[in-house]
Structures
1.
Amino acid sequence: MDSTVQILEENLETILKGEGLEVGEFNSVPEEVKPVTLRKSVCYIVSAVIFNSKDELLMVQEAKPECYGRWYLPAGRMEERESILEALQREVKEEAGIDCQPITLLLVQEQGPKWVRFVFLAEETGGSLKTTAEADSESLQAQWWDRESPLPLRARDILPLIDAGIKYRRNPWFPTLQPVDISCHVICQRLFLTFISGDIDTSDEHRLWLLLSSNNATSHPSLPIAVSVNAFDTIPGAAHRLLKSCLPSSSINVHTCGILGVQHNGRIPGKTDGICFNMLVLLENSENGAEISSPPPLEGEAYKWLEVTNQSLRAKIIQRIKEESVLPVHSLY
């Protein structure tokens, strides 16, 4: 096997396993890229969905004046120099009094690159529920909720998060996923961008192509990386911008399937506060109602299509797309 193809296939397998790769050069940069800074230009929220052995849900009673006495999932903003997992464990400990271990990222919500919430399914590993005698500015108390008894909620936006946790416990639809400790100075997406011939739901005979960057500094083609710089754009919007640059005359549909991995470090404030989302994207294989059997031609030399001929790798990619076996990302705009 050609060494270039072998390296590429190994990198693709790495991404499919939820692991990460160092962030190289950016391929879609609409304007000057500046490093993001936590709590200044970006805000990251962590939230925990935790059940006990009785299927009761961990809830905390708010101490903030604007929602005093109401109940919510343990949640809060990340702080400087924290990893995403450290922020999760700190918030749960401060607000609920218990120690926890994440099971998996459950979903990601975003309002563009300026606000991102990481929702985890986690489990209790120690500590004890916070009581009213321990009330402080973080919370008044914590308790296990049977989800049937009346409980005044701070907001109903946690209900879909709870439902996602219940669904995943019953039938996990994507492999467990944890953030990977790899630094990045901006919010960006490594695009695992695919085109599949034939109807993915009705045919077993498929050809599959990946969009690759062909003008990077190394001799090896790689998955393109697009940067999110517009605070009012959605994170998946970066894929649309990139495609407009190489497929400006095409009306093909772009479907963001979900996230294959999350890369973050955060140890150096203002320099490593960024996040790289490894995103699985599908170009819908019909144009103007007519099925097309090969990817649309690209304009320029910055990108190229590569057909995936490795049967095992192709099957894994198609399965992830067909079964929607990816971490969901929800845009709240």
Note: Residues 74 and 92 are 6 Å apart (CA to CA).
2.
Amino acid sequence: MAKITLDNLAHSYLPNPAGEDDFALKELNHDWRDGEAYALLGASGCGKSTLLNIISGLLHPSQGRILFDDKDVTHWPTADRNIAQVFQFPVVYDTMTVADNLAFPLRNRGADASYVAQRVQQIAAMIGMEDQLRRKARGLTADAKQKISLGRGMVREDVNALLFDEPLTVIDPHMKWELRTQLKSLHHEFGHTMIYVTHDQTEALTFADKVVVMYDGRVVQIGTPQELFERPAHTFVGYFIGSPGMNLFDADVLGRSARVGGVEVDLGAAYAPQGGKIQVGVRPEFIRLAADGNGVPARITRVEDVGRHKIVRLDVAGREVSAIASENAGLSDDVTAITFDPTGINVYADDWRVSAQGEAAP
């Protein structure tokens, strides 16, 4: 297990990058604590896999350093970093049995035979393959092979870090839930430093202690699921986390109030944003429907009943806004406006969250 430090780290796939836009991974300076489980979350192409491959040693950064427990490992080969990595698509030895595939990392390091047998049984139980240990990997389904890859990544107890690069892509939905739960249990039991790359917010939020949200090659927020939901540090975080994502409204902000669509809105706290583009962000859970005309003018365009609640889509000055209503809420054409719960309002200047006056620093 190790603390992982990203020191002035950046990477470009171009030989002579001329500016920031030429970097697939823009400058990062972060410490990731020993023994925590992190998820790298973001859309395709945001730099998640690039960062993971730099940490593992498969890619050498254009600038900066990677440190494990304050030791500079930037130029160390992958084998010397003592990490285990599981890739998006299964990597198994087809001519070996399931048991031999699982045992390979331990035997390769000269582990005692009885310990190897014990760990193989434990991991096989974890991935649900006890009854297939004697079977050759050739001919197994893609999801079965990926379970072997996961198991082989988890079989060693002495690694500095376990790295997962979208490992559940080929796994069926029910097994995804089980394997995420088992990975979480493994982390609680052994305390490995884990880094899990995914574009799926459900995977990230259910797996990780801290979610690292990436956008356009940079880390825009590191936080707990609750922090990401309640106080998104960047408008992308608000959009990407949550279903539906956060609504954004252009606004003029002055102190404790804002003008949205020509209507005065109580912000619940005082703000003094500086920037060119000022917006108010409100998640659908904090949008209230009004039939008395008091609020920002809005018109219901459709209602989606998802069982536990209803997602109400509204037209607000030509833009779609989403609200969450209870399952038994009576909705009609009488709804003519929306209001905001001040406890759920965030203010943004040029896409970055502005702290309320007197708010403690994050």
Note: The chain has two domains: 4-240, 247-354.
